[in-house]
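To make this tangible, we now present a fold written out as tokens:
***
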Amino acid sequence: QVQLQESGPGLVNPSQTLSLTCTVSGFSITTAYYAWTWIRQPPGKGLEWMGGITYDGRTYYSPSLKSRTSISRDTSKMQFSLYLSSLTPEDTAVYYCARVISGWGPDYWGQGTQVTVSS
């Protein structure tokens, strides 16, 4: 059974960098044609796709967040991570990690983790 679990701080100060990790179990993140993505949902708003990393390590980002976002992976731990810099209160959201099949939408999601940006 594929499972994804986000981990990271729940409260971050403005201007700092957010670091979140998604741990995957029951499936290898190097399996061909799958990608691993980050999605967030600010309070009262819709889902926002942030970016992801493919099974072979290629990264891709939302144009609106590209300058502040970095995604990496640790295949030995079956983890992939999100780094979002220069945080503002507008980055407050529930952050999700998800698996994506090439050409399709997410099929497995983590439960989500609340991140609040506040001093």
